[in-house]
Specification:
4-stranded antiparallel beta sheet, mainly beta, globular, 1 helix
Length: 382
């Protein structure tokens, strides 16, 4: 990483970092199943200069002062292999999937107390919620199944079969459908979330992973990590693929703005973050980020994207409008999961080794003066 410059703007201080990372198509030995094999036709990692700067204005949300840094306020250990974490719908607890520990862990979002760890009978990968958070749908890497956890009773209450190596789980906005991306089956399992019945498997692209629904629930977009595309599914038309969208090689994780206008996606091997306009289903901007960007999350005001730069052991902060990585902060080894509680004051990151969670306070504007150097050094955390 190269320290580029430090600018003074009035009484505000912004410390900007960019990562001069090397992105390539080489296969890197990483934790299970994160780099699908490439084919020669898929290794198109060229950044289109026309995409580097966003050409369409972002939909306005509640404005905040610019992010000026991140301060590490807490770090703690969790069971082995915290693959992902997600704030629960009520904002009171954070749900952590511990892949190698074969448990899921509930953490109080305010006190950071570990409330409970629940065995799930397999390697927990990702989670989504129904019934306002009462039920957590957890994919099990090696079991060809998802389990449903009662988050009030802290126990598994259902098990539903899926395809081979289920990854991301997402729930349609109306709570009717659970979509599960099956890595090895090249398909999406569609489950009736009300009856827990497996409806069908929808063939998509190679090695599907990321999933987002549009806010109206009409469409779902699937990231085909072993290809160069997103698959667009018409939910109301019997869950049918209606379009294939070129985005570049190795798309992994997807997030969408609240109005559904934009989708942001990480491209793992090329080290890129891309922005898609859903009105045209085209890529409109590209940001160079770190090495092997994995999970991403939008800030509460949707002005920034937080990126887990896996091989750099860093969390990157990207301006969602200019599509530039502003700076990075160090994490533990292999940051893999990230989530932002609804208040927008903190960002949580899970690290594969040594199985830790970091909680950063998001500094804005004058906050930078209270936390000098926090974009380059973590501070002692309780």
């Amino acid at each position: 990483m190269v320290l580029q410059k430090c600018l003074s703007l009035g009484f505000l201080t912004l410390i900007l970092f960019t990562s001069a990372q090397c992105s390539s198509a080489k296969e890197t030995a990483v934790a299970r199943g994160n780099n699908p094999p490439a084919t020669n036709s898929q290794l198109d990692m060229t950044v289109n200069p026309a995409e580097v700067t966003a050409t369409t204005p972002v939909t306005e949300t509640k404005k905040s002062l610019p992010v000026s840094g991140l301060t590490l306020v807490k770090k703690f250990s969790v069971p082995a292999g915290p693959k992902s974490l997600r704030i629960m719908p009520d904002g009171k607890r954070v749900f952590i999937n511990n892949l190698y520990g074969r448990v899921v862990t509930f953490v109080d979002a305010d006190t950071y107390e570990i409330l409970r760890s629940v065995p799930v009978g397999g390697e927990a990968v990702e989670v989504a919620f129904t019934e306002g958070g009462r039920y957590a749908w957890v994919s099990l890497y090696e079991k060809k199944a998802v389990v449903v956890v009662d988050t009030e009773e802290y126990k598994v209450v259902r098990r539903v079969p899926t395809g081979d190596i289920p990854k991301v789980v997402e729930i349609s906005p109306d709570g009717q459908w659970a979509y599960v991306a099956n890595w090895n089956s090249q398909s999406i399992t569609v489950i009736n979330a009300k009856t827990f019945e497996r409806l069908k498997d929808v063939p998509v692209g190679r090695v599907p992973r990321g999933i987002v629904f549009t806010p109206d629930g009409r469409f779902a977009y699937i990231a085909n990590m072993g290809a160069t595309t997103l698959s667009k599914i018409d939910v109301g038309d019997n869950h049918t693929v209606v379009k294939t969208i070129e985005v570049g090689y190795n798309p992994r994780h997807l997030v969408t703005t609240r109005d559904g206008r934009y989708i942001y996606l990480s491209l793992n091997q090329p080290g890129l973050l891309k922005k898609v306009d859903t009105t045209t289903d085209t890529v409109i901007a590209t940001a160079k980020v770190g090495t092997q960007p994995r999970t991403i999350a939008l800030s509460a005001d949707e002005q920034n994207v937080f990126v887990c730069n896996y091989e750099d052991n860093q969390l990157g902060v990207v301006d969602a409008v200019t599509m530039k990585q502003l700076f990075t902060v160090p994490t533990d080894i292999h940051p893999i999961g990230v989530t932002v509680p609804p208040g927008g004051e903190y960002v949580w990151v899970s690290n594969y080794r040594p199985s830790t969670v970091y909680i950063f306070r998001i500094n804005r504007g004058a906050d930078a003066a209270q936390a000098p150097g926090t974009t380059t050094n973590t501070v002692a955390a309780p």
